[in-house]
């Protein structure tokens, strides 16, 4: 059994990690920390976990995380980078679900996240945890930077096209729509029910923190820098991201075959039949990305539709997938549940 | 392995049965019928099942249901009663998720459901599939009448009070609220998104088909006829029933202890701490009923709050629970998933 | 023109007052205060008001409210009672949309609201602003206590029955369901979209502040104290309250005629045909209460269904109705818009 | 008073027309037809109209539409073209809210709409009812083709850029998101609450009927054919369209000034401050388009955000605006209500 700790268990990625890990046959959940809610039973805050998780939240100072085999950080940005080195030194492996280790360019990270980085050298060691690209490195990693939710949906949609060099890399458009849980479990007016329901809006058009993360990942598979316009939107649903991706074809290719071949051996990427329109609910609660590729009116523009559950393949599920790879477990352990529809 | 067939797999209870059975270690899904959609792959209609269910819908005439060990009817009312006898005669056990075998009073059934009953004698044999009341009979049953969604939530809330005789049985009130999936997957204007969203209404106040079913069940545990006012409401959510139950106290009793003792050994009924307010989402996707009991202002009125997922404990999950009991399997096989929250 | 000021314009009742008053032909909106957002244009916070309201929020200290003819308090509880006397002394009339002047029993108010009352003598003077009961007093009032949202829906449903003495007053049940805007525009986790959407729950079963307000009002029309069990619920919609009311018939009566006669001359109470089920969306955005009365199965229990828009007839609209009465204007000025459906 | 008839009053554009016309000081509503629901009071189907509309639905054969001054067609495609000539011959002016007269290219119309056109010559006479482009022609028109909902939002966003020639016209992208009411009030499974809620999907990527309409309009203002990729999506809200538009800058320009000048005199187009993100709810229930223009990261891509209420500026409101223009009334008569927020 793998002894697992979770730092920051009171947010949506925290409770989602608990949902998945509670069903994992190889995981012994040791400790869940919360500074503000120490002492409260986890299942009191999240009654869905009654009967599954009997632990209380523990104050970080009393958590003895160094006794774990693996620690997940489900914390705000800037926490994991403070604690990762001590854990790694103690032989604990770390998966950060926040952004601390995602950008290799430290200056860019500091600009977008508005703080100094506490351990730039660990960034160099960290592996970006997108298994469809970095599976081999993840297997050996001590420290994994779990991708953001938008970056997962957008990269998985563009990768086949950029790897094969069939679209112009300097003029990509990613129009992405997220459910409200992507904003986290924070007391804020903008994500109140009465503000977000029956409403649709774009946000962060001038610049969103996931932009450099996506560009880094796409440049990596493309072999060259990419030009990307990324517009995120808030849509009135709890879970789900739908990325609508646009690229200009640089040469003729069988798009459907390209996507099917690229993901033929990927357990969690499902290329749907030509002409399909994947729905976010078709992956609700599941660690899966469904993709369809279109070429409307036989023109020069490729349209890729890519959907994930932002809390699963976009966060906690991908983190468990990374854990499974790191510890040599079957990659789909605890990730094989059927999506909840309707 | 239990060979299972499903008649009528295109509704919400059908797809929910498939979701649960796909994960059942002792079930071999043999056949799913649909008259209108025969030939279409199940996973084309329900993309959430891609990778889990590879069968197409089969026309009923070609289904060979008699080769199954168990057949679920996830059909409109009036279908199962046409086909049950032939299946039973062939040694197949039957669970009907519709209402054909729920009411022992044939005349009442014919009045409420507006048709003649095709096999009154089988009604007498049928066992009402509420495990918390009839577990022993279910174990031996050939034919199980799976309870309605409202009746499950309402009965589980009133049973401890009526069995113990602590409330007046002639003046019960059940104010129940259901998510829209309870109306089924039928093309109707009243349940369109633009009709049901951002809206709340009562319906069927003059009389709802679940009224006689609830009264029958409560009379049975009470030992006497009961007087019940039942008002169902439609609330803008997909899944979930919240029953708010009112009774007049007939004598002093420790209500919390009464409920905890009644359900101490029930795997799927969770009595919450005194003062709790169960939320429907705390059971979303799970075969669980959560209950809290209140006595506001220390008055004579008991208020019971009872929540279920109408498609799971209120339909498909309870059907699988009944199957597990009938076939001597662990009662929670395929029913042990954590609710999806948020 | 009536010179109007609004104290506390950043909440949902504030923006709703602005929506209504912007269209009022006899109102000159003078000032809107906000301590936290002073200086910001109102239409920047609420873009729906662009082109209709050109004022910025003003700090209370600079508001010169004493120059108004009428001041609305759309503030949290406990603010109006601090400022009402000075305004009244300056000849300004006051309508408080919060609870400061609703309960005549000061001790009860202090218990339920957890603070000392700043001006008990003004409570005695204040008129409870339910026009269907107190129209004559409202006309002469200097200080109006605008009713709560639940109390409006519940009282309008029970009043005909209690005034006529046709139900037992000691055993009333009000099962009420509110949209989330009833909780206000406050940064709180419990009313986040991801918490409140696709979910249903009761709250405050042990006791809710609207309980004594409803009991006071019903006792007044009944002529005797009433026994009431009041259970509020949160339902995933933005606007709307649906009250389902239960009473025991004390004598035979033509219920439909009773309701129709009681409200025959009321411009904002609509008694629907026998057998109707009013929907909350049928009053969305409008100052209207729609009511239907039922006697299920011809039994002893009367069921009344009463719906309002909690922000209009349950708050800002009723306040404007009171203003119209106080200033001798046509009662429906600025309140005659058609509900928004769908 | 203008005598107005409505053909097809049982859909969402029909009830929305009724909501607006009921408040119009110059309109006398004469007749509302429905083949299926003849005889039923309008306010029985739409209780929101109780007290505002006293008419029953009339069978088309008994409607005497030729006695009206103006007839609105709120019908499915293919109806208005059957009846328009007789009405025009009788001196009645016609506004078609469906698509029969929107495309000047008859062959294209017949391909996209799958039927023969009944009166191609009237198409040539019809004026496309986008007042921001064709106000002068609308004033004189006998027959107005009211624009589609997506075409309104998309055209208003692109027009300033294309008229000024500042973007490349051959590579436009319109990623549009619509509330579910855009699909109409038809009994269909795909738009059931339980299908459309908590879900997001694209549809019609291969080709949508609004594509040729948008291209026609943009070619007209551009002076040249345009290349457009149009991807519509369904988002779980009742009302609202959000169009996110992408173009490649062809030369430097002050984008904000360009938009502000273009719409300076337009009563129903609101250019928001630079950096804004218009929300659909900010126009809920109102005949208004709000627009913001962005140039992310100072790159070559212009992003325009354009929101409307699909049932108002995208349908019934624009039709009333056209009527006001045609009859020389103030353009904002009955269209000056404040949007409903929250």
- Oligomeric organization of the protein chains: homotetramer
Query: Could you say what the CATH topology of the largest domain in chain A is called?
Result: Dihydrodipicolinate Reductase, domain 2
The greatest interface between two protein chains, and residues involved on each side, is: A-D, 49 and 49 residues
Q: What is the count of helical runs of chain A? A: 11
Shape of chain A: globular
Give a quick account of the main beta sheet of chain A: strands, pairing sense, barrel closure: 7 strands, mixed
Q: Which structural class do the helices and strands of chain A define?
A: alpha/beta
* Major β-sheet strand ordering of chain A: 8-9-7-10-13-12-11
Radius of gyration of chain A: 19 Å
CATH architecture classification name of the largest domain in chain A: 2-Layer Sandwich
CATH class term of the largest domain in chain A: Alpha Beta
CATH superfamily of the largest domain in chain A: Dihydrodipicolinate Reductase, domain 2
Portion in beta strands of chain A: 15-25%
The whole-number mean of residue pLDDT values of chain A reads 97
From the N-terminal CA to the C-terminal CA of chain A, the straight-line distance is: 35 Å
What are the segments of chain A in which pLDDT stays under 50 over at least 5 consecutive residues? none
| Secondary-structure element pattern of chain A, one letter each | EHEHEHEHHEHEHEHEHEEHEEEH
The tally of domains of chain A stands at: 2
- Bin the helical content of chain A: 25-40%
Would you count the extended β strands of chain A for me? 13
């Amino acid at each position: 059994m793998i002894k697992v700790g979770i730092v920051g268990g009171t947010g949506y990625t925290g409770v989602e990690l608990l949902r998945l890990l509670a069903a994992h046959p190889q995981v012994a959940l040791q400790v869940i920390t919360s500074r503000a809610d120490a002492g409260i039973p986890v299942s009191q805050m999240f009654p869905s976990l009654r009967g599954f998780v009997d632990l209380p939240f523990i104050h970080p100072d009393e958590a003895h995380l160094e006794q774990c085999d693996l620690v997940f950080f489900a914390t705000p940005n800037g926490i994991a980078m403070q604690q990762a080195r001590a854990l790694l030194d103690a032989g604990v492996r770390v998966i950060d679900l926040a952004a601390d280790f995602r950008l290799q360019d430290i200056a860019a990270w500091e600009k977008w996240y508005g703080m100094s980085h506490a351990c730039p050298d660990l960034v160099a060691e960290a592996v970006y945890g997108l298994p469809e690209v970095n599976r081999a490195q993840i297997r050996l990693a001590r420290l994994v930077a779990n991708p953001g939710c938008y970056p997962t949906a957008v990269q998985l949609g563009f990768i086949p096209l950029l790897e094969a060099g069939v679209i112009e890399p300097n003029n990509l458009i990613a129009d992405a729509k997220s459910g409200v849980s992507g904003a986290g479990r924070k007391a804020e007016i903008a994500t109140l029910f009465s503000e977000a329901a029956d409403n649709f809006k774009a946000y962060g058009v001038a610049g969103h923190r996931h932009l450099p993360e996506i560009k880094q990942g796409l440049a990596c598979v493309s072999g060259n820098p990419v030009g990307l316009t990324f517009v995120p939107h808030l849509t009135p649903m709890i879970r789900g991201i739908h990325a609508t991706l646009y690229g200009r074809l640089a040469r003729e290719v069988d798009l459907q075959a390209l996507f099917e071949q690229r993901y033929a051996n990927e357990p969690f990427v499902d290329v749907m039949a030509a002409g399909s329109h994947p729905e976010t609910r078709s992956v609700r609660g599941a660690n899966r990305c469904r993709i369809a590729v279109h070429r409307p009116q036989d023109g020069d523009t490729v349209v890729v539709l890519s959907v994930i559950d932002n809390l699963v393949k976009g966060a906690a599920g991908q983190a468990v997938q990374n854990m499974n790879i790191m510890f040599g477990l079957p990659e789909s352990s605890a990730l094989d549940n059927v999506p909840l529809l309707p």
